[in-house]
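User: Hi! I'm working on a homework problem where we have to compare a predicted structure to a textbook description. Could you give me the structure for the chain below?
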Amino acid sequence: MELKVFNIEGEDTGRTVTLRKEIFGVDENDHVIYLVVKQHLANKRQGTHKTKERGEVVGSTAKIKRQKGTGTARAGSRKNPLFKGGGRVFGPRPRDYGFKLNKKVKQLGRKSALSYQAKKGLIRVVEDFNFDAPKTKNFIELRNNLKINDKKFVLVLASKNKNVYLSARNISTSKVITVSNLDTYSILNASNIMFTESSIKLLYQNFGIIQE
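Assistant: Happy to help. Predicted structure tokens:
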């Protein structure tokens, strides 16, 4: 698949970039995508939730009533979970929700996500650029020129660029990410994915694809 390369003014530069089928044309694996996205969301969970159980509630341990003859159930202390102010039964405890996935599974997840977006025509390429200073106005103009101002937008760079990152930080529907940090969730959560020319080349290198 051949894609035209645009500049930041939204004009066709006359150059093209080939989307290799080894990455952008694989047979999508929905279950792998599910696992990778599930891991991504699980790793973002803090897991700091906690409630006090019976042994952690502050209160008297004295027996509050006699064992028999009251006509009600026996009770040993006011920390009984059945009483107001008592501990909670099987309450949540701090835990790590993350789990392991093999490297090749994650790679297949990214390839499947990129293939889905390529088939939908949501991938575009822009020539390498830089901003002289971090200004949100510059990034808004870039989006307007590329006609993606009202959609979720992911810009993929080959390396970190502070000016570009800071220019996009205040726009809730925009995200700037490097090739090394590109993940399946970010790919699928975007309505438009814009690669720079150098980021496409680096993407092929990271997947071990030799360019012709």
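For your comparison, note the following. The chain has two domains: 2-46+101-206, 51-91. The mean pLDDT is 91. Good luck with the assignment!
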